[in-house]
Every structure is written in C-alpha cells, then in structure tokens.
C-alpha cells in the first residue's frame, strides 16, 4: 500500500509538471535552452560549455569519439569540438548528461546496477538507431541518435525517485502503462524534446513493427530489438524476428558492427 501511495505521488507530480531534478543537471539544461534558441551565437554556446568543466570535457571527448571522428583527427579545443559535432549533436550530448545524472547519485547498489544497465542499453539503442537511420529506414541519423539517447529518460527518473522510496520498483509491471506514459511525456517537456521525437518515444509502448520500416518510431523499435543489452524494465524477448526488415545478413552484420563501435566510444565519451 505504501509503495502504491509513493508511486501515485510521483505520477501526480509528473501530471502537474513538477518533476524533481537533481541540481547537478542545471548546467546541461541551461546549455539545452541556449541551443534551442535559433538566435544563439557560437561564442555564447562556447562560453556556456567552458563555464562547466564537465560539459567542456565531454564535448571534446564526444567530438573525438568514433561516431563523429571518422577521419581519426583529434580536436583539442571546445570551439573545434562544437564546430565538428554541431549544435544538434551538442544538444544530444547535453540531454545525455541530464539522463546520466539521474543515475549518477544513486545510493542503493541494486538501483545503481539497474541504472548502469539502462545506460548501456540506451547507448546501444542510440548507436543502432544512428546506423539504422542512415542505412535502412531513411530517417535522419542525428535525430535517431538523439531519440535513442533520451528514449529511456522516464526510466532514469523513476530510478532516481526509487532511491528515496525503497521498494518502489520491486515490481516493474506495477508502473507500466498509462502512468509510465505520463512520466515520459513530462520528461520530454522538461528536457525540451521536439514534438516529433517526443511522439515517437511515447508511442513505443505497445507498438508493433510492420514492414517496411517507416520513420523514427520504427527505427527505435528495430534498434531496441537489436540492442545486445536489454532495458532492466523491458519484458523479456526471445530473439524476436526482424524478417521483412533486415533480410540482408551482410547489411545486418554491418549495422551491428558499426553500432557496437559507436556505442562503445559514445558511452565512454558521455560517461559521467
């Protein structure tokens, strides 16, 4: 009964737009807001990045990660890093830092392990979505990468609240469904996620794949099925078939190979 009361309180807060964010995400949120402003100038973006050492370090690290450094030439300054990855991918990095921070301050070892598994799942889904968008579904790869990074934001938020409310997530099935959708929608708003991305993420719950793959939602669904690490909150899947989506084994092998390298480098670059 107490667990149900706690969960109801979290859902009610989310429905009112009163999500509880750790203070450590403020710098990344400020950067996101600046990048969302079409009149924001490069020098202002660089000042905000340099104003937070962690942001500066992660920006340079991400620019040197395999996903953005295909030529193998390292950059050593924030300005060069921002110019390489661009505003859209800098926005993705800021969102990733926000998501990761929810799991970075957990005290419960079991919850920390779940947060680590959720992040590794997220990194693989983002990398897979990036490659699938480019090679298969004709979806903008950068948008797919961003959507993959933030698609489990609601799960990270619930993990952070479970640290304050022991036993909250002992039965994951108890917080699936409409309640999870409310929390996910409000997280999308709080993180200033563009509506097309937000809609694709929210519509993942209960969605089924029908060939041929179309748009961002299908890109994410395929990426989640191919991810070698499952979400700790996802129902078990017995090697679901992707027949009709990726019938070319050589293409599938290439997608898996490219995405594995991207996931490893991206995860290391964004680890906080």
TrEMBL record:
Pfam families, alphabetized: HDOD (PF08668)
Family matches, as Gene3D superfamilies: Hypothetical protein af1432
User: What sequence ranges are listed for the domain HDOD?
Assistant: 21-207
Instruction: Write down the InterPro entries for this protein, in alphabetical order.
Output: HDOD, RNase_Y/CdgJ
Its name, as the record gives it, is HDOD domain-containing protein
């Amino acid at each position: 009964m107490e667990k149900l009361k706690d969960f109801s309180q979290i859902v009610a807060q989310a429905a009112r737009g009163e999500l509880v964010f750790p203070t450590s995400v403020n710098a990344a949120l400020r950067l996101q807001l600046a990048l969302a402003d079409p009149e924001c100038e490069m020098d202002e973006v660089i000042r905000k990045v340099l104003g937070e050492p962690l942001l500066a370090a992660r920006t340079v690290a991400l620019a040197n990660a395999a996903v953005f450094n295909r030529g193998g030439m390292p950059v050593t300054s924030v300005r060069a890093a921002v110019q390489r990855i661009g505003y859209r991918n800098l926005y993705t990095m800021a969102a990733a830092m926000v998501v990761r921070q929810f799991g970075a301050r957990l005290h419960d070892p079991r919850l920390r392990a779940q947060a680590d598994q959720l992040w590794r799942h997220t990194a693989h889904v983002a990398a897979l979505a990036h490659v699938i968008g480019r090679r298969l579904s004709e979806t903008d790869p950068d948008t797919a990468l961003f959507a993959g990074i933030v698609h489990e934001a609601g799960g990270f938020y619930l993990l952070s609240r479970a640290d304050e409310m022991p036993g909250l997530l002992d039965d994951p099935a108890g917080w699936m469904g409409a309640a999870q959708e409310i929390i996910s929608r409000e997280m999308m708003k709080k993180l200033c996620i563009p509506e097309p991305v937000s809609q694709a993420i929210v519509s993942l719950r209960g969605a089924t794949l029908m060939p041929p793959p179309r748009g961002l939602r299908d890109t994410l669904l395929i990426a989640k099925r191919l991810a070698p690490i499952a979400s700790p909150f996802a129902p078990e899947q017995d090697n679901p078939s992707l027949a009709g989506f990726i019938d070319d084994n050589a293409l599938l092998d290439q997608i898996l190979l490219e995405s594995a390298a991207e996931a490893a480098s991206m995860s290391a670059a964004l680890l906080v």
